[in-house]
Write a structure and sequence with these properties.
Elements: H1 2-62, H2 65-76, E1 88-89, E2 92-93, E3 97-100, E4 105-108, H3 114-123
Antiparallel strand pairs: 1-2, 3-4
């Protein structure tokens, strides 16, 4: 009878040990999964923080006088007093600027490639 009770007790201990091992391994798996999610979120936070910093720098640059002056020059073709406007054609420097003596105005002759003129000859909407 003692032997049977030892077998039953050993069986119960084995079942209990298996149950504890199963629960412990399941907890370790869940903890590792949570740790990986936290690492992913931390990487996303770092990426968004860097993007936010880049946007802050861009906003700061867009508010500078240098940017505003560059935009005025590029978009509105305005120049400061005392500056001269130099136009560059598509494939290099212009061949010859012509200065009108009576108006003190700089006029530039722009030369395009031959196919450009043909294209505009046949397909231009201006008549």
């Amino acid at each position: 009878m003692k032997v049977i009770s030892y077998f039953i007790l050993a069986g119960l201990l084995l079942v209990l040990l298996f149950f504890i091992t199963y629960k412990l391994s399941h907890q370790i798996y869940k903890q590792n999964k949570i740790d990986r999610e936290i690492e992913g979120f931390q990487a996303e936070i770092d990426r968004l923080s860097q993007e936010n910093q880049d946007l802050d720098e861009l906003i700061a640059y867009l508010q500078t006088d240098d940017f505003k002056e560059k935009e005025v020059k590029d978009k509105l073709n305005l120049i400061k007093e005392g500056e001269q406007l130099v136009l560059v054609k598509e494939y290099g420097l212009l061949e010859r600027p012509i200065q009108n003596e009576k108006e003190n105005e700089l006029k530039v002759i722009v030369h395009h490639t031959n196919y450009y003129y043909w294209w505009h000859y046949f397909f231009s909407l201006e008549k």
